[in-house]
Design brief:
The complex is a heterodimer of chains A (about 425) and B (about 230).
Chain A: H1 3-16, H2 18-54, E1 60-63, H3 102-111, E2 115-130, E3 133-142, H4 144-151, E4 157-160, H5 164-167, E5 171-174, H6 176-182, E6 189-193, E7 199-204, E8 206-208, H7 213-216, E9 219-223, H8 224-231, E10 240-245, H9 251-262, E11 265-268, H10 269-272, H11 276-312, H12 314-322, H13 327-361, H14 382-409, H15 412-418
Parallel strand pairs in A: 3-9, 5-7
Antiparallel strand pairs in A: 1-10, 1-11, 2-3, 2-6, 2-10, 4-8, 5-9, 6-7
Helix pairs in contact in A: 1-13, 2-11, 2-13, 2-14, 11-14, 12-15, 13-14
Chain B: E1 4-15, E2 21-32, E3 36-41, H1 47-54, E4 62-67, E5 70-71, H2 77-87, E6 88-91, H3 103-114, H4 119-132, H5 148-160, E7 166-170, H6 178-195, E8 198-203, H7 206-211, E9 214-219, E10 222-225
Parallel strand pairs in B: 3-8, 3-9, 6-7, 7-8
Antiparallel strand pairs in B: 1-2, 1-4, 4-5, 9-10
Helix pairs in contact in B: 3-4, 3-5, 5-6
Amino acid sequence: MKKKLSFDIAKALLLARLKQTLVAAIGVTFSITMFITLLSFMTGLNKLLDNLIINRTPHVRLFNEIQQNPNQPITLVPQYKGAHHFISSIKTANSREELYNSSAILRTLRADSRVQGISQKINTPAFFNEGNTRIAATINGIDVQSENSLFHFFDYITKGVAENLGIIPNSIVPGKALADKLAVDIGDMVYVTMPTGETFPLKVVAFYQSGINDLDKVIAFTSIATAQKLLGKPANYLTEVQVRLNDIAIAPAVAKEYRHLFGIQAEDIQTANAQFETGTSIRTLISYVVGITLLIVAGFGIYNILNMMIYEKMDTIAILKATGFSGRDVKQIFMLIALSIGFFGGLAGLLFGYGLSVIIDNIPFNTAALPTIKTYPVNYNPVYYMIGILFSLLTTYLAGYFPAAKAGRIDPVVIIRGK
Amino acid sequence: METPILEARHISKSFHEQLNTQVLTDISFTVNKGEFVSVVGKSGCGKSTLLYILSTMDTDYEGELLIDNELVTGKKAARLAEIRNEKIGFVFQFHYLLNEFTVLRNVMLPGLKLNRLTEMQVEQNARKWLTALDIVHLENKLPNKLSGGEKQRVAIARALINDPHIIMGDEPTGNLDKKNSQIVFDIFNTLSGKFGQTLLIVTHDPEFASHTKRTIEMEDGRIKKQ
């Protein structure tokens, strides 16, 4: 049968019962709207929370842990080999925080095709002088540009210009909480006493706010060169290399490889943050379950309305069959009715869902913990829109199938004789 | 030589639900091209049941049915629908027009389904028949705005749209007043005389039957006289 004819008949039947059709379509629209909004908002929030960790956590972190030498003199004595050694008060005398042969490590990492980027770092404890009080903190010497490109450093700058860290010598970016404690503003000097006992004046060029206040109280950033100067170390001195990979999933394998290759500590992100994945996947799962439940409820609505429509249209079905429309044609017509309710209802749902997402996206959302966030986070992922329309078609197909099959089986003789 | 359009061979039917009530017993007859046949009988004698078997809509019977020399007994439902569409035109007691479509569209539907002519040609044919039946001025109205007689004429136009081999009527005048009955009968008569259209009409109206060229009389599921 010509498709156009089926469409014409389906359309005529739909328009003849416009109110019912609208009720059915609104059911689909509502559920798709909620499905889209819920998923966009939920995953937006998820992404935000994940990014708090992922954006600032290297996929693999290479560092040297201060530890006792596992090869103590007694293990070298042949006659005690295999025996259990009791040794008291071992000191970590020759252990250093420095990465040995750092330039060779950097060269190897830069040549590795799995590596998206690296960021060098120097970690050192320091004291900030506030009058007579000394505030203990950690100074991180960073390469500003690579730190920003890999870990979105600039996103967390709430005031000042962080680029100046690489331009102005002896400059520092303290955490906002630390700056408040020291009562300094941009352009002020802070005095830092190093573990070696030397004191340096440093100029504040920006404030940093990570979202975790406790961290902001004890962290300050400076450039690699400044950090090396503070410690009185040469230009190849590094304590940590942070690696960002192209594929986060291979981090544990890569970390293991580097551990063997460089003979240093290498920690992957999965080991460091095992808990956050679980929360994300459960939140996403809940959103899907709620969305799909809404759609199934809408599906029952469509099923009911189609069933009613078929009872009302018994005469029409009988006459169509008597004049030569086969059971398949009739079934096709009712499937078209169901699917067009699903399609147009779903399409409207996508539009409303998008609209609602935009509204949520513009609702102010200010929290001290998240300085860069001004409104509620929404994830406009086209995949949800695809799933939404596919699922609305699928639900209406299933809901329409049984009533349509029933319509196809109607015996015209029974209807015509029954008058 | 006469061409048989419809041939019933030993058709019997019984309802199984109520202790195998026999409704039709060994019905055999032939309708030739151009004949105007009426089937008469009292209410419940099985004439309507016979018509639904002859129209291929009811397939639960014994015996054989040939339409246009093609054996239709045992054919698949989809093929039967095609045969109904192409070769049979129906006129029912209750007019059974689709209230969702205009008069013109109602007449066109079986033609569009057949898909032998373009939509334009089907529309021309529909208008031609509506003109012939003197109801072309109603073409854009919805069926529920028409009178009973008008509706029945629309149904006749619809039955004619695919140039069927045979038109079957189930009490087509049963629901009409005398004047409209006469109009419908005259239309059938014209179709038969002027266009050579084959007609098989079930009726309980003895006057209607008496004016047809051939009458098959039924009683208790058998043919009494033909």
